[in-house]
């Protein structure tokens, strides 16, 4: 038998084995080079609760870091070297206090506890008589950025109506009966009486790009009070003021022709604050949970009849859902009876706990659509921004069409489902209104996708499934 | 380019294949006629989780072995060849195989590139033939014809779609071959198949990185394999074979989840039982071998794999505690796929034979159903091998094949929430190597 040496076949096998090892590397693919035709070096975010990064009913350092403007800015920094983004960060800790998840009740409602905040200074100030907003307020620790305005100018609770309120952020106004916003106060140096519009003007002077997502906080007090702001139709936010003041802010932001993203407000019924209590689905859930066929009754908004069955256009507020079906004392024909709240025609859901279709919801939705249409008009005809929402042909970013409405019907992102359900939906936080870090990531990705479409930039999106499911 | 006009191309090929066969069979008596309806019923055919030619020598030949009688490894491709080995020799061929199937992924929106982890899918083969008399021979083939091992980094973008998935199959095929006359032989084999399937993916809805769902199952199934071999003159031969599809019935599956928070314990029980069915496609092959000179042989094969029998992966999960029974389904909707193979063999000297091959494999995976669990694409491959006669009875065989795929783009509609997938582009390369010995005594 011939001795097997390194002859031609041997060498061929050796070459083949070497080739095998070399080719075992995965085949290469070109990755797109992140580029931006836009100058994203100094981004300014203007807005309210969403922009500020409130999550689970509170603002903390962690929730600020997962605000959509900050997530967006991090992606910008990857392609625009040296681009910084400053936020008025709170000290690490519980911030202004927030909600923690405890468990689900038998009917599937999330129970929460409130963790006390620690970022306060001074005493509690009682401010009664405000409509749908907290009736207490407290000064917050001043931001480290107070000497120069931060790039995230999102102020929780600020309304467009307060745009030119002098002293809104001055400590001397922290008293009952005067408009005051502690979140704005902590951004400014002490005893600064600048209006929010002035702050925006100052910050916009150096900005190269902006996002504008404001107006929800104008509408939410009406929604949170079940349309009961002093039983006065004038309590509806003024359409004219909202439209005019939005223009004032946007004029400043685009003063030097800066490009930006104007975000159209999402439908109120896409927010779980209303959606979780949508009439017939809530009724069906309660029927399944109680094992009966009782209907839900709401007070007749006009007051002609005592109670009427709930329809699918009426929304029980998220803050009231836990009370539906609990026995409460009601006086019927002189006798006090314990009747299940809302699940008996003699004990209907009070008007303050429900946003009914015929009166309240249509009114507030009318305000919103008028405001949104003005944003569309400004974006396309005044500021000449490119089309950001192709399906709706608007130059605004239609957050309802591009995100909130899709989430309401459940979406799947790289194998993870997101819905408008709190806790399990991973999009909205425990306060039924603000977003989780992942929700903010999806909002930031929606903006990135729109910029990439409209400006032919290549800004990488965020792997949202890697973000935490809760901010705290 | 790849996608468009593909359906038409397959149709044309099918016609092209059916037609000459019909003429041939009409000329040479009828044993083949029963196959024609089966053959022409298929629109196109091979790739998918086919792990390649089962034998070092046929791997070197690019798999074009339906009419190739120089290795008994052709037995798994065409049992009709068995009659050709009805001589006084007992033959055994045994060897090992290793396959590295590796893909890279670039996220559509994140632009992040992820490479699959390097894993070797092991395989092997054992063939034996022995003649009972001059007309009848018995054969046995033990092969690992289907399987894959996909392993992504556990924190990659699509971790909630898939992290790891593995399929292994073992086919045992006792075969009877009959030499009909000097020029024709036929054979039929009975296939017993055993397979194991396992999968794991992250539960990305939870913050816990370790939250995972894992499943594993095994089962068996049966099939048949039949074929015919014919020769016209000394130089030209042809073969045709059909292997039925094999359905592995897996009734012992376990589905486990870890890292699920207490609030969702009712939605995802720690362990549940499930059953599933996994189908290996039918394969129809036709091949021609042409001896150009005394030393040079050329072979051609077409094969059609009936992948359309793979519609979806359905897990029938049994009820556990308060969690009701449910069906988890992921849609595959494979289509029949075709492969084209050319092989050549050249005898350098009495001891050394070198082999070369080229093949094109069409993928059964449609654009709409590209999924990282099992990635596949149309691919081109080249192969090389050798057979070295260590003694008059013992030959050493070795071969290597390299396949490179087209770029595939997976698009995902997030609003279709039932579909768990990740959007991006993939490219794949397959390296297969095999070493074995062939003995005749």
From TrEMBL, chain A:
Alphabetized, the UniProt keywords read:
Signal
SUPFAM superfamilies recorded: SGNH hydrolase (SSF52266)
Q: Please list which residues make up the signal peptide.
A: 1-28
Q: What name does this protein carry?
A: SGNH/GDSL hydrolase family protein
Q: What is the lineage of its organism?
A: Bacteria, Pseudomonadati, Bacteroidota, Cytophagia, Cytophagales
């Amino acid at each position: 038998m011939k001795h097997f040496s390194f002859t031609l076949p041997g060498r061929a096998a050796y070459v083949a084995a070497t080739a095998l090892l070399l080719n075992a590397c995965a085949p290469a693919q070109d990755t797109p080079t992140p580029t931006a035709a836009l100058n994203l070096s100094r981004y300014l975010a203007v807005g309210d609760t969403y922009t500020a990064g409130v999550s689970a009913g509170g603002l903390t350092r962690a929730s600020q870091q997962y605000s959509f403007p900050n997530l967006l800015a991090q992606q910008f920094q990857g392609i625009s070297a040296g681009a910084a983004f400053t936020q008025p960060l709170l000290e690490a800790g519980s911030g202004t206090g927030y909600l923690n998840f405890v468990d689900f009740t038998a009917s599937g409602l999330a129970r929460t506890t409130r963790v006390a905040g620690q970022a306060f200074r001074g005493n509690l100030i009682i401010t009664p008589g405000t409509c749908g907003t907290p009736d207490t307020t407290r000064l917050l620790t001043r931001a480290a950025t107070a000497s120069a305005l931060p790039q995230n100018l999102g102020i929780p609770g600020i309304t467009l109506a307060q745009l030119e309120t002098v002293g809104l952020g001055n400590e001397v106004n922290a008293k009952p009966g005067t408009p005051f916003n502690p979140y704005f106060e902590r951004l400014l140096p002490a005893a600064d009486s600048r209006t929010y519009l002035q702050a925006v003007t100052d910050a916009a002077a150096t900005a190269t790009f902006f996002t504008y997502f404001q107006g929800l906080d104008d509408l939410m007090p009406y929604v949170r009070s079940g349309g009961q702001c002093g039983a006065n139709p004038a309590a509806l936010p003024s359409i004219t003021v909202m439209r005019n003041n939005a223009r004032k802010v946007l004029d400043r932001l685009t003063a030097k022709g800066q490009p930006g993203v104007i975000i159209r407000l999402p439908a109120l019924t896409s927010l779980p604050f209303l959606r979780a209590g949508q009439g017939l689905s809530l009724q069906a859930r309660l029927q399944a949970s109680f094992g009966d066929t009782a209907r839900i009754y709401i007070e007749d908004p006009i007051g002609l009849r005592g109670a009427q069955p709930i329809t699918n256009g009426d929304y029980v507020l998220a803050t009231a859902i836990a009370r539906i079906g609990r026995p409460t004392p009601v006086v019927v024909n002189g006798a006090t009876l314990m009747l299940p709240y809302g699940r008996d025609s003699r004990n209907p859901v009070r008007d303050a706990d429900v946003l009914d279709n015929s009166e309240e919801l249509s009114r507030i939705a009318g305000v919103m659509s008028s405001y949104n249409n003005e944003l569309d008009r400004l974006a396309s005809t005044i500021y000449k921004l490119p089309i950001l929402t192709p399906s709706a042909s608007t130059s605004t970013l239609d957050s309802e069409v591009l995100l909130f409405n899709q989430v309401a019907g459940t979406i799947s992102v790289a194998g993870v489902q997101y819905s408008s359900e709190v806790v399990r939906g991973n999009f909205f936080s425990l306060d039924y209104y603000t977003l989780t870090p992942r929700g903010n990531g999806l909002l930031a990705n929606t903006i990135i996708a729109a910029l990439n479409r409209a400006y032919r930039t290549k800004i990488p999106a965020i792997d949202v499934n890697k973000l935490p499911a809760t901010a705290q | 380019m790849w996608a468009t006009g593909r359906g038409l191309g397959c149709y044309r090929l099918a016609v092209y294949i059916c037609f000459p066969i019909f003429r041939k069979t009409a000329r040479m008596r009828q044993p083949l006629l029963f196959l024609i309806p089966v053959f022409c019923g298929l629109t196109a055919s091979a790739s998918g989780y086919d792990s390649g030619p089962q034998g070092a020598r046929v791997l070197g030949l690019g798999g074009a072995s339906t009419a190739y009688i120089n290795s008994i490894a052709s037995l798994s491709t065409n049992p009709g060849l068995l009659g050709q080995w009805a001589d006084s020799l007992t033959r055994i061929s045994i060897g090992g195989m290793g396959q590295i199937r590796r893909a890279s992924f670039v996220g559509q929106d994140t632009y992040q590139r992820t490479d699959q982890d390097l894993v070797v899918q092991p395989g092997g083969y054992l063939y034996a033939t022995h003649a009972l008399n001059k007309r009848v021979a018995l054969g046995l083939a033990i092969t690992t014809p289907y399987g894959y091992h996909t392993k992504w980094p556990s924190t990659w973008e699509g971790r909630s779609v898939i992290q790891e998935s593995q399929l292994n199959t073992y086919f045992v095929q006792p075969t009877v071959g009959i030499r009909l006359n000097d020029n024709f032989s036929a054979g039929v084999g009975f296939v017993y198949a055993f397979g194991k399937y396992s999968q794991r993916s992250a539960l990305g809805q939870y913050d816990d990185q370790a939250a995972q769902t894992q499943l594993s199952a095994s089962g068996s199934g049966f099939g048949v394999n039949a074929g015919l071999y014919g020769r016209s003159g000394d130089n030209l031969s042809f073969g045709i074979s059909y292997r039925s599809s094999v359905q592995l019935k897996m009734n012992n599956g376990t589905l486990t989840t870890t890292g699920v928070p207490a609030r969702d314990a009712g939605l995802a029980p720690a362990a549940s039982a499930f059953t599933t069915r996994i189908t290996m496609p039918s394969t129809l092959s036709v091949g021609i071998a042409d001896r150009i000179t005394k030393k040079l042989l050329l072979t051609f094969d077409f094969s059609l794999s009936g992948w359309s029998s793979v519609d979806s992966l359905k897990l029938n999960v049994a009820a556990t505690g308060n969690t009701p029974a449910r069906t988890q389904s992921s849609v595959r909707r494979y289509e029949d796929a075709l492969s084209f193979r050319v092989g050549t063999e050249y005898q350098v000297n009495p001891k050394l034979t070198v082999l070369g091959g080229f093949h094109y494999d069409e993928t059964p995976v449609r654009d709409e159903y590209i999924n990282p669990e099992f990635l596949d694409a149309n691919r081109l491959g080249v192969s090389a091998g050798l057979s070295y006669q260590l003694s008059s009875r013992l030959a050493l065989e070795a071969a290597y094949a390299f396949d490179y795929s087209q770029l595939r783009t997976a698009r995902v509609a997030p609003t279709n929430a039932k579909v768990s997938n990740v959007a991006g582009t993939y490219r794949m390369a397959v390296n297969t190597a095999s070493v074995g010995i062939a003995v005749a005594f």
